[in-house]
Amino acid sequence: xxxxxxxxxxxxxxxxxxxxxxxxxxxxxxxxxxxxxxxxxxxxxxxxxxxxxxxxxxxxxxxxxxxxxxxxxxxxxxxxxxxxxxxxxxxxxxxxxxxxxxxxxxxxxxxxxxxxxxxxxxxxxxxxxxxxxxxxxxxxxxxxxxxxxxxxxxxxxxxxxxxxxxxxxxxxxxxxxxxxxxxxxxxxxxxxxxxxxxxxxxxx
Length: 204
What we know:
Blueprint: H1 2-16, E1 18-20, H2 21-26, H3 31-39, E2 43-47, E3 50-53, H4 62-70, E4 75-76, H5 78-84, E5 95-100, E6 113-118, E7 127-132, E8 135-140, H6 142-151, H7 153-156, H8 158-170, H9 176-186, H10 189-203
Parallel strand pairs: 5-6
Antiparallel strand pairs: 1-3, 2-3, 4-5, 7-8
Helix pairs in contact: 5-6, 6-8, 6-9, 8-10, 9-10
């Protein structure tokens, strides 16, 4: 039975990339099996309650997958989304994630996560889902990310928002109409408009 469980764990992780403890418990796989595989070096625990194969490939998006696995309803946003879309040179020390306004904020030691709260349309519009390490990771799309950066400029800095806007326009990852659409909803178009007009003029 133990060997069958070990084989099942390895097969699941090869397919899924990363899984939480409760995912294994749902498959009737005990904690002792996981602990034994960790001791044997076949799997690792990058964060409490999260498991992956020890030889799983690592890339810059790995930390986003880990965060998404630990906060299933979270949305990668702000500087972390800018970095994912290659719209900034910033390397955030924490993963920026949005959660629903009234949701419980989990306490996670690793990876470091900084939370903001979204509500209404902000939880559903302009969100793309990517498969990273076989995890489904919700990330705000480029125009939505840029608007959010202006909306939360007091948290992340206007310079970061400006860099995202400049790169978004230069790389054609957003259009003025898309920015206007989200900025009107977020009530920051009055603030963004002169910056958008300036950047559009530069690339015209």
